[in-house]
Give the backbone structure.
Amino acid sequence: MDDTSQRHRVVVVGSGFGGLFAVKALRRAPVDVTLISSTTYHLFQPLLYQVATGILSSGEVAPATRDILSSQRNLTVLAGTVKNIDLDRQVVRAHALGRTWFEQPYDSLIVAAGAGQSYFGNDHFAEFAPGMKSIDDALELRGRIFGAFEMAEVETDPEQLDEWLSFVVVGAGPTGVEMAGQIAELAHRALRGEFRRIDPHQAKVILLDAAPQVLPPFGEKLGVKAKQKLERLGVEVQLGAMVVGVDADGLDVRDADGSTRRIPSRTKVWAAGVSASPLGRQLAEQSGAEIDRAGRVHVDPDLTLPGHPEVFVVGDMMALDDLPGVAQVAMQGGKYAAKQIKARLKGKPSGEPFHYFDKGSMAVIARNQAVAKIGSVELWGIPAWLAWLFIHLIYLVGFKNRFTTLVSWFVTFVGRGRPQRAVTVQQVVGRQAIERVAQTDPAAVGKSGAPPSRSVA
Ligand SMILES: Cc1cc2nc3c(=O)[nH]c(=O)nc-3n(C[C@H](O)[C@H](O)[C@H](O)COP(=O)(O)OP(=O)(O)OC[C@H]3O[C@@H](n4cnc5c(N)ncnc54)[C@H](O)[C@@H]3O)c2cc1C
């Protein structure tokens, strides 16, 4: 046995904000770190909507984890979806790319598996209204959005033409606002002059939410400003409107007065709810920890699982003091967990609870238009937009990505181009095809808890 095998073993699950910042903070620690993630890249989710609307390429928002961390000598990166965490044996069990299983023992574990989309019990909506959580989602939406304009150009039936040119975004939080704003810019600015039979400017963009306000966490004043800016861009904002049905050619909506109505639309985007990784429920069942309605695990003030000081849960899957599911909570949580592990190894556990430092929130509406809340300071318009550009560039991982993103933004915001419009059939129909296979042969696509009956790669 060599010396390194004697070292403290830290396993980190997830290569998102929580996982990446935890791993980096362990760089110089005398530990062996194993990062296991179901994606081989670090996804910068806040810019996903720009992939969906043709501004950025997927590579710009999702650099390879192996590449980012290649110089970290105490780290091994493994591609795998963790299916089981055995708290008694201190082992995680993962499924690698739908082909094989492996186990990884740990002395300390940091679970940062994030959250997926929630359809509030209506998972069948997903087929017609993709969410915005992954590269797959963004590329599928890119295909659906640009495809809708193409279909409109060849459509002769006025009713169907109206369906193709109606875009509905469900959820008026930051993602929904950003998505609606970008689709409106696309229709009213970027595609100008490109079609002969239709005028893309005729496209209808509707932003729906059951809440009475746009961007509720930003407060009333910024919510009103954001709504006004959206309306000026041509977005129809419908508040107090609950979606009760979604199908291929439209949505059914119940308004605050109880009446229902139909919105014809072929292209729907779901940006309305989150549901924590199912690993949270597993951890809760084994440890007796509570979970909230979104499936997030209630952790102790030091981000550990009750009764399991060796297990940290960070980011979107943890519930503590009503902290929001935002990147800064995940980053700071990951760094904090790493610091605790290092302090314990030195025999000096800090005992300090996790303290979140709120650096503020921002949402972009369109070119030159954003809202930002930083402490008690509220910004909007160009100052908020410039602050947004600057902060997102700083947090994008890697110099090359920052540079190419800057060039793409220049093309889009100074000009009006959308450089990333390539769409493949696989991107548009792949998810549904996989779902169909999963219904008849779950093991074939790695969806069951059992090893796959055959490989799909
Ligand atoms: C469209 C969108 C826009 C957003 N905009 C903003 C914004 O503007 N500002 C902001 O602060 N926040 C924003 N957020 C929220 C922010 O991105 C999240 O809060 C943050 O990503 C949470 O980090 P995390 O590490 O907990 O999870 P994630 O970043 O989601 O990472 C989870 C990781 O776990 C991996 N994983 C999942 N399950 C498993 C498993 N079983 N086994 C192994 N690996 C697994 C995933 O592949 C991924 O690498 C946005 C989110 C979305 C979806």
Q: What stands out?
A: Residues 135-154 form the longest helix (20 residues).
